[in-house]
Amino acid sequence: QRAEAVDADNAALRIARGRREEDPAVALALIEGVTPVDDEQAVLMEVLVAQLRLALEDEEGARAAADRARALDAASEMVKEVDAVIALVGAQRSLPSERPLDREELIRAGEQFSHLADGDIGAGSRKAISLSRAAQSYSLAGERTKAEQRLDQALALGVAGEAREAGAEAAMLLQRFDDVLELLPEDDDEEHR
Protein backbone atom coordinates (compact mmCIF):
# COMPACT_ATOMS: atom_id res chain seq x y z
CA GLN A 1 0.00 0.00 0.00
CA ARG A 2 2.88 2.37 0.73
CA ALA A 3 4.31 1.71 -2.74
CA GLU A 4 0.94 2.49 -4.32
CA ALA A 5 0.82 5.80 -2.45
CA VAL A 6 4.15 6.75 -4.01
CA ASP A 7 3.41 5.56 -7.57
CA ALA A 8 -0.15 4.28 -8.11
CA ASP A 9 0.44 3.94 -11.88
CA ASN A 10 3.57 1.82 -11.54
CA ALA A 11 3.27 -1.01 -14.10
CA ALA A 12 4.53 -3.74 -11.77
CA LEU A 13 2.13 -2.67 -9.01
CA ARG A 14 -0.86 -2.55 -11.33
CA ILE A 15 -0.04 -5.98 -12.74
CA ALA A 16 0.39 -7.37 -9.22
CA ARG A 17 -2.96 -5.88 -8.15
CA GLY A 18 -4.57 -7.36 -11.27
CA ARG A 19 -3.16 -10.80 -10.47
CA ARG A 20 -4.57 -10.64 -6.92
CA GLU A 21 -8.01 -9.41 -7.99
CA GLU A 22 -10.69 -12.13 -7.99
CA ASP A 23 -13.09 -10.40 -10.40
CA PRO A 24 -11.64 -10.80 -13.92
CA ALA A 25 -13.36 -7.65 -15.21
CA VAL A 26 -11.87 -5.54 -12.42
CA ALA A 27 -8.46 -7.18 -12.89
CA LEU A 28 -8.58 -6.47 -16.63
CA ALA A 29 -9.44 -2.82 -15.97
CA LEU A 30 -6.45 -2.58 -13.63
CA ILE A 31 -3.92 -3.80 -16.18
CA GLU A 32 -5.28 -2.55 -19.48
CA GLY A 33 -3.47 0.58 -20.51
CA VAL A 34 -0.40 -0.27 -18.43
CA THR A 35 2.81 0.55 -20.24
CA PRO A 36 5.24 -2.29 -19.53
CA VAL A 37 8.81 -1.38 -18.67
CA ASP A 38 10.35 -4.18 -20.76
CA ASP A 39 9.50 -7.14 -22.98
CA GLU A 40 9.45 -9.58 -20.06
CA GLN A 41 6.81 -7.51 -18.28
CA ALA A 42 4.91 -7.09 -21.56
CA VAL A 43 4.77 -10.89 -21.99
CA LEU A 44 3.53 -11.33 -18.41
CA MET A 45 0.90 -8.66 -18.95
CA GLU A 46 -0.36 -10.16 -22.24
CA VAL A 47 -0.51 -13.66 -20.71
CA LEU A 48 -2.52 -12.24 -17.82
CA VAL A 49 -4.83 -10.41 -20.25
CA ALA A 50 -5.32 -13.68 -22.16
CA GLN A 51 -6.25 -15.52 -18.94
CA LEU A 52 -8.65 -12.77 -17.89
CA ARG A 53 -10.30 -12.58 -21.31
CA LEU A 54 -10.74 -16.35 -21.22
CA ALA A 55 -12.32 -16.09 -17.76
CA LEU A 56 -14.70 -13.50 -19.23
CA GLU A 57 -15.54 -15.99 -22.03
CA ASP A 58 -13.89 -13.77 -24.64
CA GLU A 59 -11.96 -16.46 -26.50
CA GLU A 60 -11.15 -14.15 -29.42
CA GLY A 61 -9.69 -11.53 -27.05
CA ALA A 62 -7.75 -14.25 -25.22
CA ARG A 63 -6.26 -15.52 -28.48
CA ALA A 64 -5.34 -11.96 -29.53
CA ALA A 65 -3.51 -11.35 -26.23
CA ALA A 66 -1.74 -14.72 -26.56
CA ASP A 67 -0.71 -13.76 -30.12
CA ARG A 68 0.78 -10.49 -28.81
CA ALA A 69 2.65 -12.38 -26.08
CA ARG A 70 3.93 -14.94 -28.60
CA ALA A 71 5.15 -12.12 -30.87
CA LEU A 72 7.23 -10.85 -27.95
CA ASP A 73 8.62 -14.23 -26.82
CA ALA A 74 7.52 -17.37 -28.65
CA ALA A 75 9.83 -19.53 -26.49
CA SER A 76 8.23 -18.44 -23.20
CA GLU A 77 6.76 -21.32 -21.19
CA MET A 78 4.02 -18.92 -19.95
CA VAL A 79 3.00 -18.21 -23.54
CA LYS A 80 2.99 -21.90 -24.46
CA GLU A 81 0.92 -22.72 -21.39
CA VAL A 82 -1.68 -20.01 -22.06
CA ASP A 83 -1.96 -21.21 -25.67
CA ALA A 84 -2.67 -24.72 -24.41
CA VAL A 85 -5.18 -23.46 -21.81
CA ILE A 86 -7.02 -21.45 -24.48
CA ALA A 87 -7.21 -24.53 -26.73
CA LEU A 88 -8.50 -26.73 -23.90
CA VAL A 89 -11.05 -24.26 -22.54
CA GLY A 90 -12.24 -23.40 -26.05
CA ALA A 91 -12.81 -27.09 -26.77
CA GLN A 92 -14.61 -27.61 -23.45
CA ARG A 93 -16.90 -24.70 -24.20
CA SER A 94 -17.57 -26.12 -27.69
CA LEU A 95 -18.83 -29.46 -26.41
CA PRO A 96 -22.50 -28.52 -26.05
CA SER A 97 -22.50 -26.80 -29.45
CA GLU A 98 -22.09 -28.03 -32.99
CA ARG A 99 -18.72 -26.30 -33.36
CA PRO A 100 -16.13 -28.92 -34.38
CA LEU A 101 -13.11 -29.49 -32.15
CA ASP A 102 -9.65 -28.85 -33.58
CA ARG A 103 -8.03 -32.24 -32.95
CA GLU A 104 -4.51 -31.12 -33.90
CA GLU A 105 -4.72 -28.07 -31.62
CA LEU A 106 -5.86 -30.32 -28.76
CA ILE A 107 -3.00 -32.76 -29.38
CA ARG A 108 -0.54 -29.83 -29.31
CA ALA A 109 -2.16 -28.67 -26.04
CA GLY A 110 -1.80 -32.18 -24.59
CA GLU A 111 1.85 -32.23 -25.61
CA GLN A 112 2.43 -28.81 -24.06
CA PHE A 113 0.78 -29.77 -20.77
CA SER A 114 2.84 -32.99 -20.76
CA HIS A 115 6.00 -30.94 -21.37
CA LEU A 116 5.07 -28.61 -18.50
CA ALA A 117 4.48 -31.60 -16.21
CA ASP A 118 7.87 -33.05 -17.18
CA GLY A 119 9.48 -29.75 -16.18
CA ASP A 120 7.73 -29.60 -12.80
CA ILE A 121 9.95 -31.02 -10.11
CA GLY A 122 8.66 -33.63 -7.68
CA ALA A 123 5.08 -34.60 -7.05
CA GLY A 124 3.52 -31.20 -6.60
CA SER A 125 0.04 -29.99 -7.30
CA ARG A 126 1.27 -28.04 -10.33
CA LYS A 127 2.53 -31.23 -11.95
CA ALA A 128 -0.78 -33.01 -11.26
CA ILE A 129 -2.72 -30.09 -12.79
CA SER A 130 -0.57 -30.17 -15.93
CA LEU A 131 -0.97 -33.95 -16.24
CA SER A 132 -4.75 -33.71 -15.73
CA ARG A 133 -4.99 -30.96 -18.34
CA ALA A 134 -2.96 -33.11 -20.73
CA ALA A 135 -5.41 -35.96 -20.09
CA GLN A 136 -8.35 -33.66 -20.82
CA SER A 137 -6.76 -32.37 -24.03
CA TYR A 138 -5.87 -35.84 -25.30
CA SER A 139 -9.31 -37.16 -24.40
CA LEU A 140 -11.06 -34.40 -26.35
CA ALA A 141 -8.72 -35.12 -29.28
CA GLY A 142 -9.72 -38.78 -29.24
CA GLU A 143 -6.32 -39.94 -27.98
CA ARG A 144 -7.68 -42.18 -25.21
CA THR A 145 -4.48 -44.12 -24.48
CA LYS A 146 -2.42 -40.97 -23.95
CA ALA A 147 -5.25 -39.45 -21.90
CA GLU A 148 -5.44 -42.53 -19.67
CA GLN A 149 -1.66 -42.51 -19.15
CA ARG A 150 -1.61 -38.83 -18.13
CA LEU A 151 -4.56 -39.23 -15.77
CA ASP A 152 -2.96 -42.28 -14.15
CA GLN A 153 0.25 -40.28 -13.66
CA ALA A 154 -1.71 -37.42 -12.08
CA LEU A 155 -3.61 -39.72 -9.75
CA ALA A 156 -0.39 -41.44 -8.68
CA LEU A 157 0.79 -38.07 -7.34
CA GLY A 158 -2.09 -37.85 -4.85
CA VAL A 159 -4.04 -34.81 -5.98
CA ALA A 160 -5.67 -32.07 -3.90
CA GLY A 161 -7.42 -28.75 -4.51
CA GLU A 162 -7.37 -27.50 -8.09
CA ALA A 163 -5.52 -30.65 -9.13
CA ARG A 164 -8.45 -32.76 -7.83
CA GLU A 165 -10.87 -30.72 -9.92
CA ALA A 166 -8.73 -31.05 -13.04
CA GLY A 167 -8.36 -34.79 -12.41
CA ALA A 168 -12.13 -35.20 -11.92
CA GLU A 169 -12.78 -33.36 -15.20
CA ALA A 170 -10.33 -35.65 -17.02
CA ALA A 171 -11.86 -38.75 -15.40
CA MET A 172 -15.33 -37.59 -16.46
CA LEU A 173 -14.22 -37.16 -20.08
CA LEU A 174 -12.73 -40.65 -19.97
CA GLN A 175 -15.89 -42.03 -18.34
CA ARG A 176 -13.86 -43.31 -15.37
CA PHE A 177 -16.71 -42.73 -12.96
CA ASP A 178 -15.09 -44.49 -9.97
CA ASP A 179 -12.23 -42.00 -10.25
CA VAL A 180 -14.70 -39.12 -10.60
CA LEU A 181 -16.42 -40.14 -7.36
CA GLU A 182 -13.07 -40.57 -5.64
CA LEU A 183 -11.93 -37.10 -6.72
CA LEU A 184 -15.10 -35.19 -5.94
CA PRO A 185 -15.08 -33.40 -2.60
CA GLU A 186 -17.18 -35.27 -0.07
CA ASP A 187 -19.74 -32.46 0.27
CA ASP A 188 -20.30 -32.64 -3.51
CA ASP A 189 -20.79 -36.43 -3.55
CA GLU A 190 -24.41 -36.27 -2.42
CA GLU A 191 -25.20 -33.47 -4.86
CA HIS A 192 -23.80 -35.40 -7.87
CA ARG A 193 -25.35 -38.82 -7.18
Short description:
The protein has 193 residues and is mostly helical. The chain has helices at 2-6, 11-20, 24-31, 39-55, 59-72, 77-94, 103-119, 125-140, 144-156, 162-173, 177-183, 186-192.
- What distance lies between the first and last C-alpha atoms, to the nearest angstrom? 47 Å
- Work out the strand percent: under 5%
Reading the helices and strands in chain order gives HHHHHHHHHHHH
Structural class: mainly alpha
Instruction: Compute the CA-based radius of gyration.
Output: 18 Å
Largest sheet: none
* Mean pLDDT reading: 87
Helical percent range?
over 70%
Helix run count: 12
Low-confidence stretches: 188-193
Number of strands: 0
Shape: globular
Can you tell me about this structure?
This protein is 75% helix and 0% strand. Helix 4 packs parallel to helix 6 and helix 10 runs antiparallel to helix 11. The longest helix has 18 residues.
Features:
193 residues, mainly alpha, 0% strand, globular, disordered C terminus
Write the layout of secondary structure elements.
Elements: H1 2-6, H2 11-20, H3 24-31, H4 39-55, H5 59-72, H6 77-94, H7 103-119, H8 125-140, H9 144-156, H10 162-173, H11 177-183, H12 186-192
Helix pairs in contact: 2-3, 3-4, 4-5, 4-6, 5-6, 6-7, 6-8, 7-8, 8-9, 8-10, 9-10, 10-11
